[in-house]
Each structure stands twice: as C-alpha cells, then as structure tokens.
Design a protein that fits this description.
The complex is a heterodimer of chains A (1139) and B (373).
Chain A (H helix, E strand, L loop, with lengths): L1 H16 L9 E5 L31 H10 L2 H15 L6 H35 L1 E6 L2 E6 L8 E5 L7 E7 L5 E6 H4 L1 E8 L10 H5 L2 E7 L10 E6 L6 E5 L4 E2 L4 E3 L3 E8 L5 H4 L10 H32 L2 H4 L8 H5 L2 H16 L5 H20 L13 E2 L13 E4 L6 E12 L2 E4 L23 H13 L4 E4 L7 E3 L4 E4 L3 H12 L3 E6 L2 E5 L5 E13 L4 E7 L5 E7 L1 H4 L8 H13 L2 E11 L1 H16 L4 H12 L4 E12 L3 H10 L3 E5 L4 H10 L8 E5 L1 H4 L5 H16 L10 H7 L3 E6 H8 L7 H14 L2 E5 L3 H12 L7 E5 L5 H6 L2 E5 L6 H5 L2 E3 L4 H39 L12 H11 L1 H10 L5 H6 L3 H4 L8 H25 L14 H23 L5 H23 L13 H7 L1 H45 L8 H8 L5
Parallel strand pairs in A: 15-28, 15-32, 28-31, 29-30, 30-31, 32-33, 33-34
Antiparallel strand pairs in A: 1-8, 2-3, 2-4, 4-13, 5-11, 5-13, 6-7, 6-12, 8-9, 9-10, 14-34, 16-17, 16-27, 18-20, 19-20, 21-22, 22-23, 23-24, 24-25, 25-26, 26-27
Chain B lengths: L3 H8 L8 H13 L23 H28 L2 E5 L10 H9 L5 E9 L3 E2 L2 E7 L7 H4 L4 H4 L3 H5 L22 H4 L5 E8 L2 E5 L9 H7 L10 H4 L29 H7 L7 E8 L7 E2 L2 E9 L10 E7 L8 H36 L1
Antiparallel strand pairs in B: 1-10, 2-9, 3-8, 4-7, 4-10, 5-6, 5-9
Helix pairs in contact in B: 3-12
Classes of the chains: A alpha+beta (1139), B alpha+beta (373).
C-alpha cells in the first residue's frame, strides 16, 4: 500500500515537473476526520505529503554544493572553472589567482544573490508554514501550525483568514451554506466568489456536529488548473446507504484564497502542501532567451576559435623554434629534471593548455557579470519611468524579467488583444433593441454622433410586457454580485446606496446598470432568491435554480429561475452567433439588422433570449444537471452537452449594445508602431464587425487599406467551405505576390509605398486552415496563408479562442528569419499568447492580474507601449549591443600584444603584463565606464526616438550585432593591439629611455603597453559616448585616475605575499622617462585615429542627412495630415473598401 | 476551438521570480502603497548631459593643430636622436670576426675562462659626456619564462631565512648536488654577465686609462631597497653567507663581486642588479659603466682607443653575439630614430586627412547649399 502511494506521489511529482500538461491518473480517497467508514474496513492511514510549503531551493546544508553545481552548469562558468583548474594543476604562466579571483567574485556575487532570494523564500515559507490554524479533533478546537495539517483533517477558518490548504467546503456559518472568497492573490481577481458547501453537511456548523460526520471523499489527484475540480463525497449515516454527492470547483476552497463576509467555515483538507493547486502553479515560465544572447554565443564561438588557434599556433611555433638545440636549452637557461623527464606529447599538451590560460582573458568572465548587471540595473529605468505611471490605477510599469530589455528594441510583430488592451474595457450601456424596436438612452453620449437614419429615440415601441420581460432578463441573467458599504475593491460605486456591483465581466455590470436606467434594479441575491425592483418600485423575487455559466466555447450563459407565481423561465444571453441558431428563425430579422449595425459602430452586442419551462421540463433538466455534476469523468463535456440541449428553441427578445471606448492614444500608438516597421496584428475573441471598426478607429486599417477577408461570411455555409477557402487563398496570394518585388530585402520599404493590405480572418476559418479535414496539401495552403499574412500591413483575427491566439503567434514566430514577436494583452485569455511570444506584455487592466503576472513586462495602458518599445527598447538594444561589442573589442586588443610577445620570448608563455594587471583589467580598470555607458547612454535623445519612429528601423534585425559590425570591432581591436605592441617594440629597440642611460626591462615594456591599452580603450569609449552625464565623467576619468594611482601604489610597496617583486617602482620609473610619455601619447593617438576619422565622416554625412530630413519635414507639414475623424464616420465610408 | 482548460491550466503559472507567494504579497503591498516613481532627473533619464558632436568644424582645426604639433615634436625628436653619437664594437669573435677575440671565443667554447683580448678603435669625432658604456647581447632570451621566474626576490632582499631556503622556482640552480643552498639562486643570477672591460685612450704613444664609473647604473630603488645583503655576522659579509654556495657558473661567491667596496658587493653589486632586471626582447643592451670622471668628464675626445676585454661569457653556443657600445645620451635617452619618424609620419597623416576632410566638407557644403536653393 505504502509503496503504491509512494509511487503515486512520485508520479505526481513527476508530472509536476512535466509542465502539468498531461492528465493525472487515478483518484484519491480522503477519510474525513480520519474516521473509518465502517468497523469492518481496517482504516489504513494513507500517506499524503504534509502541508509544508517549500518554495525554497536550498537548505543551509545543501546550499553550497547545490548552488555551485547550478552555477557551474552554465557553460561560461564551467569554462572558467576548467581554466582555473588547469592553472592549478599545470605549471602555467599566470598564477591561478588571475582567473580564480574573477571567477570567485562572480560565483560569490551570484551565490549571495541567490542565497538572499532563497532566504526570502524561506522566510515566506516559514511565515506560511508556522501560521496557526484551528483543527477540529474529537469535537474540540486544536491550535496547530499550518504545516501540521494532514489530508483528512477538518479545518476551521474564520473571516478574513487565508485557507491553509485546499479544502472541501463542508459547513458554513451562513445558513444557506455559502461563503464568499476572494482569490486576489491567486489570479488577481478581486471580486467575491461564492462557494457552496456540500449540501448534506451544511448544517453541521458546530465543532461537535462536524465531528460526527463520517464521510469519504474521492477526488482526482492534484492538478494545477485553478478552475477545475471533480470529486465525490460519500456520507455515511447510521445504518443507511451512503449518500453520494458530487463535488466541483464551487465546493473547493483553494489555499491562498481569503474568506470574506462569512464568520467561519469548516472544511476538510484534500490537497496539502506541495500538492495544493497554488503550489502546483509555482512552476516557473519557460526561460525566454533574447536574440542578443544568441549573438553573444556566436561571437563567443568565434573568440573561442581565435583562442584555440592562437594556442595552437604558439604551441606549434614553440616546437619548431625549439628544434634548434641552442634555442631549446641554452646554457644559461637549463631545464629542470622534471621537465626533461616528461614525455614530449604530454609536454606539448601542457604547453597548449598554458597558452590557453595565457590567452583565456580574450573571453571575459566579467562580460557576463556586466551584462547581467546592466540588464538588472537597466530594467529599473522602466519601472521608474514616470511617463508610464498611471494615475488611475496608481501604478507604473512592472518588470518581471530583465532578460529581455533589449528584445524590446527588436520587435517585428505586435500581437495585441482588443478588449481591455486597445479599448478601455469599461463598458457603457448604449442602446438596446427589443423585439426589433430600438431603444436609446435619452442623453446621447456618443460625441458628435449623427446617425443617417434620422431620429432614433423610440424608433418604435414594443409591447409593454415584452419590454419588461427583456429588462427582467437583463436583471436576472448574470452573475453580478452586490457588495454593500465596503468599497475596497469598488469598481463601480452606486452613490445613493453605497453598494457596488461586482462581476468578473464588465459587460454584465453595464447591462445591469442599463436595466436600472430603464427602471429595473437588481437588488442582490439572497438565499437563492434574486431580488429585482421593478418600475413600480415593487420588489420581485425570483428563485435562481441553475446558472449555466458562461464559457468562451459556448459564448453564452443562462439562468433558470422560478418566479413567485411558480413559473419556470430560462434566460439566456450571448453572442449573436451563438443565440440566433437557437431561437425561432422568424424573430431574428429585425434584431439582426440592429445587431449588425451596432457591431459596425464598434459596440459589443449581446442577444437576449428566453424560454418558458414546464415543471416536467424543469425536473428533467434538474435531474440531468444533477447527474452531470455528479460525474467524475468528463464532467465538462457532459455538462456542455446538457447545456446545449437546454438552450434550444428559445425566443429572442432583444439585443443590447455596450460601448467599449478606445484607450487614449491607442491610435497614435499603433500608427507609431507601424511607422517603426512593426506589423500589428489584432487577435480578439470579439465579433468581426466590432473588431473591424475598432481597427479602423485605432488606425490599424487606413482608409486606403485594401481588406482581404477570410471569414465565415466569405466562406458561405456551403459544404464546400474548404474548396472555397482554398480558392480565396490562391486568389489573394496571386493578388499580393506580383505587388512585391522578388527581393525580400526591400520588404520593409516596399510596403510603405505600395498598396497596403489588411487581412481579416476568424477563428473557425483559421482552424480550417490549420487543422484541415482532408490532410492532402494542407501544409501547402498553410504556407500560402502565412505568406499572405506576412505581406499584409495589418491583420485582424477575430473570434479567436485563447489557444488559437497562441497558435497564431507560434506560426509567425517560426517563420523564416524567426522574427521577434511581442504579445500584449490584459486578460486571462491572453496569457497563452503572452507566454508564447518572445516578449509578453501585460496590461494591468480590469480583468484581473493574470496577464500582468505572466508577462515579462506589464504596463498600465496600451499607449505606454510606444515609449517602452521606441525609447526604452531602442536604447536598451543599442546599449547592450555596444556593451557586447566593446567587451570583445577591449579584450582582443588586451590579449593580442600578449600573443605577439610570444614570438619574441621564445614561445615560453611569458606573460606581457603583470598578474595584477591581468586580473584587474576587466574587473577594475575598464569595467565601470562601460557599465555606466551602457546604463546612461542616449545616442539619440528620448524625445527624438519617440517622435521619429522610423529610427527604430535602424536597429531592426539585430543590426548592431550582425557580423559586419562585429568584424569592424574585431578589426579595430586587432589594429589597436598591433599598434600597441609594435609601437612599444620599436621603441624598445633601444631600451635606454631615461636621460641617465639606465635601461628598462620586460615589465616596463608590458606596463607601457598596458598603460596605452587602458587609456585607449577608455578613450575609445569616451569617443562613443554621446551623452556625458556627471556619472560618465566620474567613471571615465575616475577609472583612468584609479589606474594611475593603483599602478603607483602597486609598484610602491614590497608586497610580502608576492614571490617576485616584479613591478617594484616600474611604473614610477616609466613615467620619469620623457620618451615613454611621448610614445604613450603618440600610440594612443594613432590607435584612436581611425575611429575619430570615422566619427567625423559620419557626422558630416549625418548633418547633410539631417538637413535633407528637415527640408522634407517642412514640406510634409505643408500637406496637411489627415485629420482624426470621429470613429463612426470613418467606419461607414471605409466600408466600401472591403473586398 | 481548443478546449479552454488547457489555457487556464498553463495560464495560471506563477512568475518565476523569488518566492511566488512572497512576491504576490509584495506586489499587493506595492499596489496598496503609493508607488509613484520618483521624479528625479536620474530615474527619468534626464540627467543634464554634455552632448559633444565631433563635427567637421571642430575636427578640422583639431586635425591641423595635432598634425602641426606632431610634426614639430617629430622634428625635435629626430634631431635630438640624430645628435646622439654611438659606437658599436662587436667582440663575440664568431667565425669571420677576424679580430683577436676569436681565439678567446674558441677558448671559451672549450671551457676556459679568463682569456683576454683587445679591440682597437678610432673615434673620428669626440663623444660629448657623459658617455655610457653598454654591452649588448643578441639572441639571448632573458624574457624566457623559465628563465624569468628563476630567481628569489626574498633571498635577494637579504632575508636570512630566504638566504638558506631558496624558492623552488630557482631550480635547477636552487641547491648544489650536496643540498647546499645557492646564493643568489636561480638561472638569472647564475648567468650573470661576467666579461669585464677596461678602456685606454691612446695618445702620444702612451695608453692612459679612461676611468669607468660603475656607480648609479642601476635603479636607486633596486640597489637601496629591493636588493640588500644579508645581515652581517660579526661585521663580516662572508660570515653572513656561510652555509650557502656560489652559483655554479660564478668564479667566486657573491660577497666577492666587488670585494673592495662594501657598498657594491654581494647582492647590492650594481652590475648584478642591472643584470637581474630582465630584458624585454632577445636583443638587449645593459648599462655597464659611465665615463664621467677625471680628464674625461666632458666626454671621450677623438682619437684612438684600446678596449681590453676579459672574455668570460660564452655566446656562440646559442648563436648569440655580444657588443660593446659607447653612446651619448640626451633627454630622450639613447639613440632611437623610431619616435621621431613615427611622429613625423603621424603628423603628416593628420595634416593630409585634414586636407582631405576639408575638401569633402566643402563639397558637402556646396551640395547642401544647392539643395537648399
């Protein structure tokens, strides 16, 4: 038994690691209160994991080994470790300290950071695990630590307490067996959710009563989906057959959620500790890697090759040189016994390793540290940005990962959600249509709106009873809750009664408020009864029997209520496409016209239908639903099937229109993004017409954009849908292809001048393309579709399921050239595409925080995308690209003289520089200036970047990290390395450089080279710096001063820990020689000369370019830009452009 | 349409940051608190900044100025280098040398030491003082790593423990076969250059010796701080060196290097210190003596000279050469044409680019003007 359960746990753990995608098999049985169900069955204590939450990775004992192991799994660290070990083992020219110290520094800093983070996790864990909770044992309350809870324990939770583990809700202090819960810390939704106690145990609301319960719970093994749970409770009463009740997510109280507005509840623990749904959701997102990192790795490979070839060349040369006996072992320089005895092959190998060690500085440890620091510190500028702070929600941008800063500068495709992202997602009830008669609010709230159809108010009037039925339907068919007084999470506050409507969908609130405007006020839900105040100020009571919840597949929801007169009604509201097929066809004509007109206006429309049920009907439905709810397997499918059966043969009563306004500056932002060469795709679950008008309003489609449609409408309803689709695809393909010249390189420029195309596709057509029924030539059409997509300026995908959004993103992401994609969305339905894209942006919207939490960056509004991409993204990319190139450059010209020196020292691995210089070069002398540069540099001012989106194109396709710039930097580094070495080499043709005739030795030689090197490399950075803040001045001049100071200091003291006092007064003597000074100055000048020349020529060119640009701008401003027309006028006139 | 559950299932992932729960709590707290970003110049990336632009207008004068300055400096360097007089005498005595040091070279190849030979030379013009006397070795790898590490600075600093316990880097010249420590240990010390020179001015049929000053040829910090003799035992240096043996190549122990002069013997012998500063390149010269005393304080007058050489140091075995060099010095040190030429070339390059740039600049300006019109 124990074995099998352990195996099960292993399985569970295993599937925890495996992304939690596959279904968990098997169920678990929980004995409530550990009481055996009958005397005959031996009660076997099952082993479940305890309620300890362990989010920490390390303990005090395993921290060191585990952390070290983790760190050395990184290829770079491992490489440096190898180098270090080689230095320890083999007799190498530089002491192990030179590479050991930086490595030690890096490892220590990382370890401290990770240790600190883990300590925070430990603290958080301890706080959770040691918090006291109350268990019911033997009818008494027992206070215990949270971590002591075992599966099967009965837990008491009081108001405003957090559930310590996943509980099955047994009893509540509320008479109706409900409790209210907020899951703000789980999914960010701050509204109160109602959970229901198991019906048969609701009354057991005292310690004694609950202790008398004998029951078992069978439920599925833990799985991470927060909104799914299936189980069954068997309640045993004295000598009776056990009663079985189904358990669903509404019976499950999740760990991490908080009890609200309920005095206390009892629950039995079913999932504890690491098996709770919250813990199962800990698993991190897959690591996203930026394109820059890939470039770095490619460059690293090049440098590794350089390193290896250098070592090979030197080793070979050494043995060729040594083949002359008088070179190998002259009398003055005899080998040791050991050296003579070693095998030649082994000697060659150690020589090779020694050369590797000598040149290994070409691959800098510190680059990784600096890049990490730059990313980490740089990301603060995003969260600090005042312009991305939103007064309304009182929050600024949020950076969840700093790994992708530079990726923001490389975006080619932007996938955006519509609702809540482009639009505000604050709904306003605009109008409704009852029985084909249009009702509009007396006060026109649409600015400048003038309808061509003449006066609209009371276009006609429906019968009074239909009107009332419609409004009652609005008042009843929803899941809105009322929250009185307390306004902590208030979304919409009703000033008179201090009560708030709360709902997960803002549409519902708008509808309820709309009904209120017409005289029907929803007063709340009490004991399954919904109270509605009608136009005559009477309160009507309806018993809510069932709620057929909304889901994105059905796209509708229903309630079944019983009126006070005993009639049964089903009210249903939903998208027109899901309602119209289910109502009497003769009723829909007039309403359909209204719905379509509303959709064109950009409103969100919902249709309302009803059906009266007889007692028999209801009993049948009740039974069916009860059965389905009891089902342990495939409950969802069964439920969906029953819902489908129920929601048929309804009568349409009307439709509603709700406006969702565009977010401020959404249009300007989209325009700017498009001007920056990004292609913007809108992926929405909304109706095509609504989405299209939003696209026009947000200037995604221009008036001259030719629209290509691939929708259900254009497909028709015929059997030959797919053939028709293929025809269309081919037609569009033909249409688009000749328009474009064959060379794809011009693509970016060409679309700006030639005809622009927009594509509209809906979800069902997309799935037809992606998952065709006949598999023949499917991939062919798929690629045609993709080609069409990629050639359109703007693409609108409507009626998308969340997974389809991700599919689209993946499709584009994996096309040739692997363009960088960015997804932006605000709701839980956007999470999949946010996770799929290279960069995921969450809008901190009204639909909870799911998107923001799963995103890489979260901003309050869509308009902030402009600054995030055009300014921050651009700057970060330029900064990090420069950082990377500079690092390779400075290490190449650092190590090249060392390599050249081997040719003059008999290939003996004699280091040119002193060990201190070797170690400190990357750590101290040249690290801070580049770090400051890569944090502060603004080669173009932020204002210019924002106002000239075209500048974004300049860095597209990873322009600064292509092979060409890399080659330029490498050549520069090589040139400078040659100048440094040979300049000093020629100077040393006569080594008496002081006016008293004294001579300099090899360490002076190295010091001169090194001084020139440090100055040149730092001044090169100074030349590249266009934005000199005091910090740049401080670190650049400070570093140079520090170098000089350090050199004096290092050479000024006999260091007792050093074996050789090589540098003793070398630097001081060096600066006493005038010739050395002159050489240093000259060589610095020569090294920087090409760079200065290039800069000057560039500036001359740019000046000319700027003049041209400003000329053009002037002429541009003369021709007036198209004025921003009101959304609706545009839409109508633009309609003609549709194919 | 795909089932929505998969979306919710994978969508409810937690941020990978430190401590999911802690983070949630922190974000919640942050949301509650006023977290408006600081409006400082730094956080908003609006620090006041100097934005220099190297335009043609500023660069052109710069190029011309730098070019002219370099030309001037180059001329100065060139002339001061040209005024330095040097006289090189190769006495390695290899095949075809033709002078009487060849026999000494052969003798040294056979292992004999102490052979003397003389070189006669004429100075066509006087060398103004102070004249430095260098020896130059070629194909001699003092910068070889094995050679360069073969020393013990602790021993050389006069440390008594270090004296009797030479560093292991010194081997194979660390101890003698009997295990006695060598002082000074290591290959560098062992291979101390031990040819000696004596210079005679031949005038009026008699040879008058030119006094060669061996003081102040090493760095002051070396001979006074870095190098020092072990503490005297009973006032005697040889006693201090007791328990050590001389390097195998040396004819006598370190304390006999300049036995008559207690300030120039042992480890603080300046010839020794000069030797111990290893050269950068395989052909190198080292300062041997200076002529600045007596009748020759103003330099070496023109005339004929004789240089008597004690030929001890074998160089032919590694195909090296050795030379004696008489050279005057200037403010820039010894003769070195490189600096002057480099400055001249760079200066002219600057001026040339200046002109090219001027041309380009003028052309662009013209074009711009045409564009404007």
């Amino acid at each position: 038994m124990e074995f099998s359960i352990n195996q099960e746990r292993l399985l569970t753990l295993w599937s925890m690691w495996c992304a939690g995608e596959e279904k968990r098999v098997g169920t678990r049985t929980v004995f409530v209160g550990h009481r055996p169900v009958s005397e005959t069955d031996a009660y076997v204590e099952q082993k479940f994991c305890d309620n300890r939450i362990i989010s920490s990775k390390y303990t005090v004992w395993n921290f060191l080994p585990k952390n070290l192991f983790e760190q050395f799994r990184r290829i770079a660290n491992f490489y440096f470790l190898i180098i270090f070990l080689v230095q320890v083992i083999v007799d190498t020219p530089t002491s192990p300290v030179t590479s050991g110290l930086p490595l030690f520094f890096v490892i220590t800093v990382t370890a401290i950071k990770q240790g600190y983070e883990d300590w925070l996790r430990h603290r958080a864990d301890r706080e959770v695990n040691k918090s006291s909770i109350f268990l019911i044992e033997n009818a008494k309350q027992v206070k215990k630590d949270s971590e002591k809870i075992k599966v099967g324990d009965i837990v008491e939770v009081k108001a405003d307490e957090t559930f310590p583990c996943d509980l099955i809700f047994l009893a509540s202090s509320n008479d109706d067996g409900t409790c209210y819960v907020t899951t703000a810390s789980l999914d960010g939704e701050s509204n109160f959710k109602t959970h229901y106690a198991v019906r048969d145990t609701t009354v057991l609301c005292t310690d004694d009563a609950i202790d008398s319960l004998t029951a078992t719970i069978e439920c599925e093994q833990p799985q991470p989906d927060l909104y799914k749970f299936v189980g069954r409770i068997n309640i045993y009463r004295h000598n009776q057959e056990p009663v079985a009740r189904s358990l669903g997510p509404e019976n499950l109280l999740l760990k991490g959620a908080t009890l609200k507005n309920t005095k206390k509840i009892y629950g039995v623990a079913v999932y504890t500790g690491m098996e709770t749904k919250m813990a199962l959701n800990y698993q991190g997102k897959s690591q996203k890697r930026s394109a820059v990192e890939k470039s770095i790795n490619a460059f690293l490979m090049v440098y590794l090759c350089i390193l290896l070839s250098k070592a090979t060349v030197c080793t070979t040369m050494k043995y060729i040189w040594q083949s002359d006996p008088f070179n190998d072992e002259p009398w003055y320089n005899q080998k040791t016994e050991k050296e003579r005895k070693t095998f030649k092959i082994l000697r060659m190998f150690t020589d090779f390793l020694s050369f590797m060690v000598l040149f290994n500085f070409i691959i800098p440890v510190s680059m990784y540290v600096t890049v990490e620091m730059q990313k980490f510190l740089g990301s603060f500028f995003i969260s600090w940005d005042k312009e991305m702070y939103d007064e309304e929600i009182r929050e600024g941008a949020l950076v969840n990962t700093s790994d992708l800063n530079e990726e923001l500068g490389q975006v080619e495709y932007v996938f955006t959600d519509k609702t809540g992202t482009l639009t505000e997602n604050s709904m306003r009830f605009i109008e409704c249509s009852i029985d084909g008669h249009k009702y509009k609010d007396g006060i026109s709230e649409v600015d400048g709106f003038c309808h061509t159809d003449g006066p609209l108010k009371y276009y006609g009037k429906a019968e009074k009873c239909r009107e009332e039925l419609f409004l009652r339907a609005l008042c009843l068919c929803h899941t809105v809750q009322i929250k009185e007084g307390d306004t902590v999470d208030g979304l919409i506050v009703n000033p008179e009664r201090r009560c708030t409507y709360i709902s997960s969908s803002p549409d519902e609130i708008a509808l309820v408020k709309g009904a209120k405007k017409y005289g029907f006020t929803f007063l709340g839900l009490e004991n399954e009864y919904m109270k509605v105040k009608n136009q005559k100020n009477e309160t009507e009571m309806y018993q809510r029997l069932h709620v057929l919840n909304f889901d994105p597949v059905r796209r509708r929801m229903s309630v079944i209520v019983r009126t006070s007169t005993g009639k049964f009604f089903l009210f249903c509201k939903g998208a027109d496409s899901s309602i119209f097929p289910r109502v009497q066809q003769d009723e829909i004509q007039q309403t359909k016209v209204h719905v379509e007109r509303n959709a064109v206006d950009g409103y969100r429309t919902l249709c309302v239908a009803f059906k009266e049920l007889t007692q028999d009907d209801y009993d049948k439905i009740d039974r069916q639903l009860g059965e389905a709810k009891m089902a342990l397997q495939d409950r969802e499918e069964k439920m969906a099937r029953i819902f489908d059966d129920i929601e048929t043969d309804m009568h349409l009563i009307g439709a509603t229109a709700v406006e969702d306004r565009l977010q401020e500056h959404a249009a300007e932002t989209i325009e700017a993004l498009q001007a920056a060469g990004m292609k913007v795709w809108v992926l929405t679950g909304d109706k095509m017409e609504t989405a299209k008008s939003t696209c026009y309003a947000s200037r995604l489609f221009q008036t001259n954009t030719e629209l290509l449609e691939l929708t259900v409408k254009t497909m028709g309803d015929s059997e030959r849908k797919e053939d028709r689709l293929h025809e269309l695809l081919l037609e569009y393909h033909k249409k688009l292809l000749p328009d474009f010249p064959k060379n794809r390189g011009n693509l970016k420029r060409s679309w700006t001048v030639s005809q622009e195309y927009g594509l509209i596709i809906d979800g069902s057509t997309l799935s037809l393309i992606l998952n065709p029924s006949q598999d023949s030539s499917s991939s062919h059409y798929r690629s045609i579709f993709l080609q069409i997509c990629l050639k359109c300026t703007a693409v609108l995908c409507c009626r998308m399921a969340p997974l389809q959004k991700a599919q689209i993103v993946r499709l584009v992401k994996n096309t040739k050239g692997n363009p960088i994609t960015l997804s932006v969305g605000d709701g839980a339905n956007d999470v999949s595409m946010i996770l799929e894209a290279h960069v995921g942006i969450g809008i901190k919207g009204k639909e909870g925080r799911q998107a923001a939490r799963n995103s890489d960056y979260a901003v309050p509004k869509f308009k902030h995308l402009r600054k995030l991409l055009l300014a921050h993204g651009h700057l970060y990319y330029v900064r990090i690209a420069h950082l990377v190139q500079y690092f390779f450059y400075k290490n190449l010209c650092f190590i090249l003289p060392q390599f050249l020196y081997q040719f003059f020292c008999g290939f003996s691995q004699q280091p040119l520089y002193d060990a201190a210089y070797l170690t400190m070069y990357n750590i101290c002398f040249t690290s801070l200036p580049i770090l400051a540069h890569s944090l502060l540099e603004q080669h173009i001012s932020i204002e210019t970047l924002m106002s000239e989106p075209r500048l974004y194109l300049k860095i597209s396709n990873n322009a600064m990290l292509q092979w060409k710039p890399f080659l330029y930097w490498t050549t520069l580094g090589a040139f400078e390395g040659l100048v440094f070495f040979f300049g000093v080499y020629f100077l040393f043709q006569n080594s008496s450089l002081e006016d008293n005739g004294k001579v300099f030795g090899n360490w002076t030689f190295g010091s001169i080279v090194f001084t020139i090197l440090v100055f040149t490399v730092t001044l090169k950075l100074a030349l590249d710096t266009r934005f000199w803040t005091w910090m740049n001045h401080f670190v650049i001049w400070g570093s140079l001063a520090f170098y000089v100071f350090f050199s004096f200091f290092w050479g000024g003291i006999i260091w007792p820990f050093l074996k050789q006092q090589r540098m003793y007064f070398v630097f001081a003597h060096m600066v006493m020689s005038l010739s050395t000074w002159l050489t240093i100055v000259l060589l610095i000048f020569i090294s920087l000369f090409p760079e200065i020349l290039l800069i000057v020529f560039k500036n001359v060119k740019r000046k000319k370019h700027q003049k041209k640009l400003s000329n053009r701008k002037e002429s541009d401003s003369l021709s007036s830009r198209p004025s921003i027309r009101p959304l609706l006028l545009r839409t109508f006139s633009d309609e003609s452009n549709v194919l | 349409c795909g089932p929505p559950r998969a979306v919710l299932g994978s969508g409810a992932g937690w941020p990978a940051g430190p401590g999911g729960e802690a983070q949630v709590r922190r974000t919640a707290m942050a949301a509650a608190a006023q977290n408006k970003p600081d409006n400082t110049a730094f956080t908003q990336q609006r620090l006041p900044a100097w934005q220099p632009l190297l335009s043609a207008g500023t660069a052109l004068p710069l190029f011309f100025c730098v070019g002219l300055a370099c030309l001037a400096l180059g001329l100065g360097l060139h002339f001061s280098s040209a005024t330095i007089r040097e006289r090189e005498l190769d006495y390695s005595g290899g095949a075809g040398g033709g002078h009487n040091c060849s026999s000494c070279a052969n003798a040294s190849r056979a292992g004999a030491a102490g052979c003397t030979c003389s070189l006669h030379f004429e100075l066509a013009e006087a060398l103004p003082g102070p004249v430095c006397l260098y020896y130059e070795l070629s194909n001699y790898y003092q910068n070889h790593r094995r050679y360069g590490v073969s020393r013990d600075d602790r021993q050389l600093s006069g440390d008594s423990w270090g004296l009797s316990n030479p560093a292991k880097e010194c081997s194979p010249f660390r101890t003698d076969p009997q295990g006695m420590p060598i002082a000074p240990c290591g290959a560098i010390a062992n291979s101390l250059f031990n040819d000696t020179f004596a210079l005679y001015h031949l005038a009026n049929g008699k040879a008058s010796p030119v006094p060669l000053d061996n003081r102040g040829i090493s760095w002051w910090t070396d001979s006074n701080i870095k190098f020092s003799n072990p503490e005297l035992v009973n006032g005697s240096l040889p006693a201090a060196f007791k328990g050590t043996v001389k390097p195998p190549n040396w004819p006598h122990a370190a304390y006999l290097l300049d036995a008559g002069n207690p300030n120039n013997t042992g480890f603080i012998n300046e010839d020794f210190i000069v030797w111990m500063r290893t050269a950068a390149l395989p052909t190198f010269r080292k300062l041997y003596r200076r002529v600045r005393q007596g009748n020759f304080s103003s330099g070496l007058p023109e005339g004929s000279y004789r240089l008597d050489i004690t030929y001890n140091y074998p160089v032919l075995s590694f195909q090296g050469t050795k030379k004696v060099i008489f050279s005057t010095v200037s403010w820039m040190g010894g003769k070195n044409p490189f600096l002057g030429i480099a400055y001249l070339v760079f200066g002219s390059a600057c001026i040339l680019t200046g002109f090219v740039m001027l041309a380009v600049h003028l052309r662009y300006q013209q074009q711009n003007q045409m564009d404007v019109e």
